[in-house]
Amino acid sequence: LQKLIHLLQATDDPLIQEQALIALSNSAAFSVNQDIIRNLDGLSIIGGMLSDCVPKVKEKALNALNNLSMNIKNQEEIQVYITQVCRNVESAPLNSDLQLAGLRLLTNMSVTSDYHHKMINSIPCFLRL
């Protein structure tokens, strides 16, 4: 996991980034790995990929954060990206993989009412979708 996180930081190659994010996403399906990724500062590194200009990289980052969001401590860190995820959902092509990945993450983040206030301005857009 540490090597995958370092790889994300070390490369600008979108294909390598996608593969590393897929591996991290798959690893995050196991609760023990969710804590490890957080403790390795993986959440902020993956979250930083949401600013990437390549839609597939953003999508894979959203998928990884989605799997990581099944952990309350991770949600506390992931919540800083909610506004950015909402913007990505609003600007992505309708029903695109990127838009659906963002909506899945927002669904997980809205299970409790802790972060609803960060999504409220995007509700009209979500209703149009």
From TrEMBL:
Domain of life: Eukaryota
Subcellular location: Mitochondrion outer membrane
Keyword field: Membrane, Mitochondrion, Mitochondrion outer membrane, Transmembrane, Transmembrane helix
Alphabetized Pfam families for the sequence: Arm_2
Topology versus the membrane: Single-pass membrane protein
Gene3D superfamilies referenced in this protein's UniProt entry, alphabetically: Leucine-rich Repeat Variant
Any single GO CC term annotated in Swiss-Prot or TrEMBL for this entry: mitochondrial outer membrane
Domain (Armadillo repeat-containing): residue spans on this chain: 1-129
Protein name stated in the entry: ARM10 protein
Native source organism of the sequence: Thalassarche chlororhynchos (Atlantic yellow-nosed albatross)
